[in-house]
Design a protein that fits this description.
336 residues, alpha/beta, Arc Repressor Mutant, subunit A, Rossmann fold, seven-stranded mixed sheet, two-stranded antiparallel sheet, 18 helices, globular
């Protein structure tokens, strides 16, 4: 019986995926995209600049050219593609995401079997403590994590296209460094923002917002969304903050948002990846497992969010697709 060659090739592609990601990580760790952009483009020039062996550079780059990450060759010179340009050391690049995923998170995924078997975070198995505890005392890791999170927010600029924010005050609950707020205020000149996160995060958000859109349309407040959220908003955003919380805590947050709404026209907007059991797609399903590996959390289905919202006194008003397979779930408060 002949082997199904197409299926065999697909298996090979799947099981060597980790090799590919580590090659991209190695190029970024060596600074190759930036060196190529600066004109050091041959094997010998890259070797001299990185301290790596010229033969090793050649073999690495040969594969990355084959993968479409770079173009050219080691004699005439390599060129950056749109892909490798996104890996240069620039403010909007994916470089820090690549470094984080190629180091700590790559080690974390090595414990996938135990994590899936026990529902214990792979990061905690690998490093002996939860991710967020480690972030609290490892400055370098914390910085890479925040920059990686920023790089993953590719959908922020599209939020004003699916939710009307003109002339409105929105509340960014669990705002982190304030990237969503900055994107909205830049796109909607007459919008105003209330930014909320834990006390130690607010100075970071203030600094980032001051450097981007300014603070004249921003009200900053520290607090715990499990306890309360700022009152009087027209739209309450919960953006990528629910995956690590239990259903009961999520309902509490929803109820806090409901209690803070002064007008029945106010809305709650959840921005998350949503998984589907009926017709699953790769990216949300992959990120769901990644959450298990890193924090022990996970993504929810649209049906689950709908049920939790109803428990908190909301009705789903609209569901819209955003880039990177992110979903906007907009909910209206039910009449008292």
């Amino acid at each position: 019986m002949k082997v199904d060659l197409k299926a065999a090739q697909e298996v090979v592609e799947l099981v060597t995926g980790g090799w590919r990601s580590q090659c991209v990580y190695t190029a970024v760790k060596l600074g190759v995209p930036d060196l190529v952009a600066a004109g050091r483009t041959t094997d010998e020039e890259l070797a001299a600049a990185t301290g790596a062996a010229a033969e090793g550079v050649h073999r690495l780059m040969r594969l990355l050219v084959a993968m479409g990450v770079f173009e050219g060759n080691g004699t005439d010179g390599y060129r950056n593609t749109a892909t490798s340009t996104l890996l240069t050391d620039t403010p909007d690049s994916l470089r820090n995401m690549c470094l984080l995923y190629g180091e700590e998170f790559y080690v974390t995924w090595g414990h996938a079997k135990e994590s899936i078997s026990t529902l214990t975070a792979g990061f905690e198995i690998a490093f002996g403590e939860p991710l967020y505890r480690r972030l609290s005392h490892q400055t370098d890791l914390s910085e890479r994590f925040q920059l990686a999170m920023k790089a993953g927010n590719l959908f922020f600029d599209y939020v004003p296209e699916v939710i009307d924010l003109s002339g409105k005050t929105f509340v960014d609950v669990g705002a982190g460094p304030g990237q969503l707020t900055a994107a909205i205020l830049a796109a909607v000149p007459d919008a105003r923002a209330k930014v909320m996160d834990r006390d130690h995060v607010i100075p970071v958000a203030a600094q980032n917002l001051a450097a981007t859109v300014g603070l004249d349309r921003v009200e900053l407040s520290g607090g715990d969304m499990i306890e309360a959220v700022p009152a009087g908003g027209d739209v309450y955003f919960l953006c990528r903050v629910l995956a690590g919380w239990s259903d009961e805590d999520v309902v509490r947050v929803f109820r806090n948002c409901r209690a803070a709404m002064a007008d029945p026209s106010a809305r709650l907007a959840i921005l998350e990846r949503v998984v589907s059991d009926e017709e699953p797609t790769v990216l949300p399903s992959l990120w769901d497992l990644h959450l298990l590996m890193t924090t022990g959390g996970g993504h929810r289905t649209l049906e689950k969010y709908t049920a939790l919202l109803e428990r908190a006194g909301f009705t789903v008003d609209n569901v819209a697709a955003l880039p990177s397979e992110t979903t906007a779930i907009v909910a209206a408060p039910q009449a008292d």
